[in-house]
Amino acid sequence: AQTVTQSQPEMSVQEAETVTLSCTYDTSESNYYLFWYKQPPSRQMILVIRQEAYKQQNATENRFSVNFQKAAKSFSLKISDSQLGDTAMYFCAFVPFGNEKLTFGTGTRLTIIP
Amino acid sequence: DTGVSQNPRHKITKRGQNVTFRCDPISEHNRLYWYRQTLGQGPEFLTYFQNEAQLEKSRLLSDRFSAERPKGSFSTLEIQRTEQGDSAMYLCASSYGTIYEQYFGPGTRLTVT
Question: What is the per-residue pLDDT across B65-87, written as a single tens digit (0 to 9) for each?
């Protein structure tokens, strides 16, 4: 069984600063996808970024980037130049190839302070 | 493309009543998923459809829960004889092909009193 652990229940940073959210996972699979999802208050979950495990290059999407360390089973999310609209719950999620079931962590509540 | 929609957005029911939720996926998405999210937790997988076939069910989906996806379009999730422990946000998601990216709806918040 796969598990996803997010060890930071809450974080807060000043607007325009950089923040890193941590995620570790446990699996015996060698091929899988990792995702970061954002869930703003009272709004639906949005995919922020995804990483294929077979790719060594870290994924980036504008101000969002990941640090994927396959051997350490670590997948952190870096948000640069943070904005007020980044305030949300952030969930790390995992799915093995050939499987359809996303396994989520417990989330990190991120607050951007004006 | 209007995204995944779910109805109702909120449902309050008394223990023992039956409830039904509806999910309309993004058009042409052949995969549809149901998740349950309780306060302070990440979503937990309940079940998954590819077209009209229900291919996987979680152990969380007790006999009181049933899901359908007639004609491979919208889906319904029914909970019979609701219990207070069923109170949660029920999320629907859809995807297509082998992209593995799931697009979520706004959820239905169920409160069982």
Answer: 999 999 889 999 999 999 999 99
